[in-house]
Amino acid sequence: xxxxxxxxxxxxxxxxxxxxxxxxxxxxxxxxxxxxxxxxxxxxxxxxxxxxxxxxxxxxxxxxxxxxxxxxxxxxxxxxxxxxxxxxxxxxxxxxxxxxxxxxxxxxxxxxxxxxxxxxxxxxxxxxxxxxxxxxxxxxxxxxxxxxxxxxxxxxxxxxxxxxxxxxxxxxxxxxxxxxxxxxxxxxxxxxxxxxxxxxxxxxxxxxxxxxxxxxxxxxxxxxxxxxxxxxxxxxxxxxxxxxxxxxxxxxxxxxxxxxxxxxxxxxxxxxxxxxxxxxxxxxxxxxxxxxxxxxxxxxxxxxxxxxxxxxxxxxxxxxxxxxxxxxxxxxxxxxxxxxxxxxxxxxxxxxxxxxxxxxxxxxxxxxxxxxxxxxxxxxxxxxxxxxxxxxxxxxxxxxxxxxxxxxxxxxxxxxxxxxxxxxxxxxxxxxxxxxxxxxxxxxxxxx
Length: 448
Description:
Elements: H1 2-5, H2 22-45, E1 50-54, E2 56-64, E3 67-71, E4 75-79, H3 81-85, E5 93-112, E6 139-146, E7 152-160, E8 180-189, E9 194-197, H4 205-210, E10 223-225, H5 226-232, H6 237-243, E11 245-256, E12 266-272, E13 287-296, E14 299-323, H7 325-335, H8 340-350, H9 357-367, E15 378-381, E16 388-393, E17 407-410, H10 415-425, H11 431-439
Parallel strand pairs: 11-14
Antiparallel strand pairs: 1-14, 2-8, 3-4, 5-7, 5-14, 6-7, 8-9, 8-10, 11-12, 13-14, 15-16, 16-17
Helix pairs in contact: 10-11
């Protein structure tokens, strides 16, 4: 039958040995109890019974603040958000200028290149007309002109005079630490169709006008003082303002959307993202340039601004969880295998010297059954033209007549000779089988 041939009508199960022992039984249930407590603890701690979804968010920012500064060779100016924000805007980020170098009244013309970008020269032969590289401010004219009292450099066609100033210390806009920024963060968890923002529903317009993050113990106010942000990132605003840098504002949403334990509030954290030590990086800080153009007496000129500042990157992370019977069943099914550790440990304990020798021997005899591999048999062969029995080893390559015998025996039908012959055969049969064969009058062997 096909069912019998394919073993479709059979069922195999494992053999179970029960050991009646108070010590082993107590140890078994103690270990199972510890495993159960661990499974329940991890389920509650990691909320493995929940289905999760990742956050989708958008961020908008609004900076406020006014500063009055004195710029060398420029005078006193009042800068508002339009001036210090600059054109340097990125996705989910905002920029605040903290230091500036201003070069006034630049015009197109010829002037000596500044060091270290310019080439020192003595005569015009040291300068190459039309030469420029990525570090040059202009194109060489081929003339060697006076740079200062002691030095000469190659003349270039560029916006003159060329910027030749170092960033001021202390920073000109160090007062920017008192500026504030409002961060509006809208989030959504698509799997649960849940929408929220960091301006909480209980907040009113009057609350927002007077609140500052972490002032008066308010950790959910969306308005931040820039100095507080830098301090929370374990940095000094005055030092960072000289060359600029990058600060990360992290908003983490860890939400539980179950009705009983409902909780969905933002948690803010701050850290510096760029390398702050100037001696460990080739180009420290953050800066960029922009210009304001004008026309005077028909000649175009510009004012060049080199801006140093701090860029604030807003990064949003989060996930939401909600009870799911499917996730609970999956977790329970995946943890049932932990109970096999109890069996493995108890089997090892009984099989070692840590337990009593009597129990070890009794348990081993009941649980394990030793089976020896079949040994290769010897054949006893007799030919009609020979008077003796030949004992030869079974061979597949040679014929029995060509195989060299291991021993020769006289043909006798008495019981003693039969026992001696069967012991020489070593066919893996028991002694009782050999005796039975001898009692039948002749051994069970192939005769040729």
